[in-house]
Structures are given as C-alpha cells and as structure tokens.
Amino acid sequence: MRYIRYAFLAALAIVLVSVALANRQTVTLSSLPEGLAAIPGLGWMAVSIEMPLFLVVFIGIVAGLLIGFVWEWLREYKHRAEAARKQAEVKTLQRELKKTQAERDKDKDEVLALLDQAS
C-alpha cells in the first residue's frame, strides 16, 4: 500500500511540474477592475501583483481546499457535539450501573457477586 501511495504522489508531482512549466508566463492579478478602482474612496483596495500563471492556479486550488475543509468542519459541528453528549451520557450511565450493582451485591458473598458481574 505504501508503494501505491508513493507512485500516486510521484504521478501527481509530475503532473504539477508539467502544468507549472507549461504556464510560466506572467499575469497581472488585480483585486478590483479598473472601473471600480477609479471610484474615489476605493483606490486603497486596488492592488495589482504580477506572478506566474501556475502560481495563480495552485494558490486557487489550495484556497479552495482550505475553504472546503473549514466549511465541512463547521458543518459537522452538530454531529461532533451530539457524539460528545452521548459519550458523556454513556459514562454517567456506566457510573450509575456500577453503583447499583455495588448496592445490589453488598449483602452477597464475594464469590456470588463476582459470578453476577461476569455474566
């Protein structure tokens, strides 16, 4: 299984390197279109940066993955909270069961109490 993972990672690296080599041309990435940047008061938000196209693509993929992971983590909160609540309830019930069994077995012989607990 480890070799399959290494083969997959090697193939992924080859694909990423080939995409990077094919898209080395520089592009300008702007935060606002020129029309909006000309509006008074919005000039401070107009930022432009030049970078290779493959960086724009890779950064977009990473940002999408991170947003998806955070979104899914937030969506699953109710399930994690319910599981924690049920786990606390199980611990409470186990404590009550042990206490009830101890009260039931306090007048019994030790051997009989052990046999009852084993079954």
Automatic annotation (TrEMBL):
Residues 74-117 form a coiled coil. One of its GO terms (cellular component) is plasma membrane. It comes from the Bacteria. The lineage of its organism: Bacteria, Pseudomonadati, Pseudomonadota, Alphaproteobacteria, Rhodobacterales. Pfam families: LapA_dom. Keywords: Cell membrane, Coiled coil, Membrane, Transmembrane, Transmembrane helix. The chain crosses the membrane at residues 51-71. Residues 46-97 form the Lipopolysaccharide assembly protein A domain. This is LapA family protein. InterPro entries: LapA_dom. It comes from Thetidibacter halocola. The keyword 4Fe-4S does not apply.
